[in-house]
From TrEMBL:
Protein name: Carboxymethylenebutenolidase homolog
GO CC term, one of those recorded: cytosol
Native source species: Bubo bubo (Eurasian eagle-owl)
Residue span, Dienelactone hydrolase domain: 27-241
GO terms for MF: hydrolase activity
Entry similarity comment: Belongs to the dienelactone hydrolase family.
Amino acid sequence: MADPFLYDTGERTQYGCLGHEVQIEHIKAYVCRPSFFTDKAVIVIHDIFGWLFPDIRYIVDLIAGHGYITICPDFFKGTDPWKTTDHWADFADWMKDHDPTKVDKEADVVLKYLKEQCGAKKIGIVGFSWGGMAVHHLMLKNPQLTAGVSLYGIIRDSEERYNLLNPTFFIFGEKDHTISYDQVSCCTGTKLKQYCKVAYKLKVYPGQVHGFAQLKPEDMKPDDKPYIEEARRDMIDWIKMFT
């Protein structure tokens, strides 16, 4: 279980998973609970490196420490995640078999588990990169999710991508090589102002690259640490505001 007083900014001297793995119908998941009862939960959607990646489990533990039943399901359903040894020339083909907009069935399974087995009444969702795209998709489709945080991941090719159902926060790094600042401001920000009818927020963190917000303390550079901690506080604050 997670102690809420240990993770105010996510800094830990040593990292070790605090949760456990469960089987939920056809998917496995990593779950961490706070040290006290709560009826609030957060789903964490992993990036291309999958649900076993230590950095994503670190984030699950961090969020649980703030008072949420937190779960990271294997949205790849047992198939291989992207590996650092894979060739980027094959990435487009890999993505065809790992579509972040095809996560609805798994999301419904996890929502059912959280409500029926964990007693959750309010459920938010957070996702990183590939998972950020999945969060954007789900916040357009699933009204059961009371709040969403998409970190450096957006849906770019749907005309309906601005019709968010519930409050959604988009986090980006200024030096992200996958999403340019122009794409953030022109393709997302302007259209959201025009079409979105719920609370939303976009924030760009100076000097930060893709994946910055999920680094473990030992992997942080001193100049980046304040922005990493700020992004995590902002993420938690958004979830707390609406979940």
